[in-house]
Amino acid sequence: MRIGFIGLGNVGGKLAGSLLRNGYDLVVRDLDPGAAQPFLDGGAGWADSPRQMAEACDVVVTCLPSPAAAGSEPVDCPVSGGCHRAATGNIAIFAGCSREAFERVLPLLTTMGRRILHTGPLGSASVLKVVTNYLATANLVSLCEALTTSAAAGMDLATTYEAIRVSSGNSFVHETESQVILNGSRDINFTMDLVVKDVSLFDDLAQRLEVPLELSPLLREVFLDGQERYGPREWSPNIVRRLEEATGLEVLAPGFPAEMVDDEPEEPGHEVVPRSR
User: Fold this and answer.
1) Which of 174, 142, 152 lies closest to 161, judged by CA?
2) Overall fold of domain 126-247
3) Domain ranges (residues) in the chain
4) Confidence band for 39, pLDDT divided at 50, 70 and 90
5) How is the beta sheet containing 270-272 ordered, strand by strand?
6) Rounded to two decimals, what is the model's pTM?
7) Which pairs count as long-range contacts for 63-68, CB under 8 Å and 24+ apart, including other chains?
8) Does residue 216 sit in helix, strand or coil?
9) Residue 235 φ/ψ, nearest 5 degrees
10) Which pLDDT belongs to residue 69?
11) What letters, b where the CB count within 10 A reaches 16 and e where it falls short, cover 116-142?
12) For 179-183, what is the mean pLDDT?
């Protein structure tokens, strides 16, 4: 199977790397030819246009800021889990498409990711991605408040981190974003403008469905304020800075990494089957 891949940015480059690393016949394209060079050096081909790629490949994968489709049967495949998991092929992938199309691309998806969920028809995966991004944002803001309040109470923040990690308050967001908050880098490869986009999408969805929300509009205001203060391309975990400035505290602790690295070994992916099936 020959695979085309368009979009070699933070996430796309890592997903394409998993395909190349696992022996797929890969053809790549990016608006920045320099981003493609490591893949070309590793044996991938280059397409001069999306049309050329579509004509030469069995499947075309796009990893772009907004959905794009090529060919007769698109598959909507947002990913979740962070750039560090994308790099090791351990990221989660949602797939919205017909069951027949899902089964055709499942071997490809299990190369790029570890947990693969068929969410239903085209578009369903994007809805669930918006939902999960909203939950991650709510968790990030609550963790910022928890860490700052702990600092104000005189708690050792390394101990606070462990207390949250071993308790009912733990989460994926805590085990990743709290670490780069405490390090001070706040580098999670995700920026404030992207959070505003995600929360706005969730808010818009709920409004269209006439679901009265209370928390979502507040989260959107928090990140609009953060974007205004620190710039749209500031790392999203630095939203904690609003609380640091308000209290005069520094939410920092020694011993935490500046960026996340996935220490789990790469494993073959598998389909996650909902309990109702």
Assistant:
1) 174
2) N-(1-d-carboxylethyl)-l-norvaline Dehydrogenase; domain 2 (1.10.1040)
3) 2-125+265-272, 126-247
4) very high
5) 79-80, 91-96, 113-120, 270-272
6) 0.90
7) 63/5, 63/6, 63/7, 63/8, 63/9, 63/11, 63/12, 63/15, 63/16, 64/6, 64/7, 64/12, 67/126, 68/6
8) helix
9) -60, 140
10) 57
11) bbbbbebebbbbbbbebbbebbbbbbb
12) 98
Structure tokens at 253: 């602790």
| % of the chain residues with pLDDT over 90 | 87
Helix/strand/coil for 119: strand
Give the pLDDT band of residue 23 (cuts 50, 70, 90): very high
The amino acid occupying position 144 is C
Return the amino acid letter for 276.
S
Confidence of residue 68 (pLDDT cuts 50, 70, 90): low
Q: According to the model, what pLDDT value does residue 117 have?
A: 98
Q: Which fold has domain 2-125+265-272?
A: Rossmann fold (3.40.50)
Q: Stretch 129-148: mean pLDDT, rounded?
A: 97
Whether the Cβ atoms of residue 62 and residue 6 lie closer than 8 Å to each other: yes
Residue type, 44: A
Q: What is the pLDDT of residues 151-166, one digit of tens each?
A: 999 999 999 999 999 9
* SS3 state at 220: helix
Residue 60 corresponds to which tokens in the numbers above?
């075309």
Task: Give the phi and the psi of residue 37 in degrees, each rounded to 5.
Answer: -60, -45
pLDDT at 267: 84
The dihedral over CA atoms of 155, 158, 163, 164, expressed in degrees to the nearest 10, equals 100
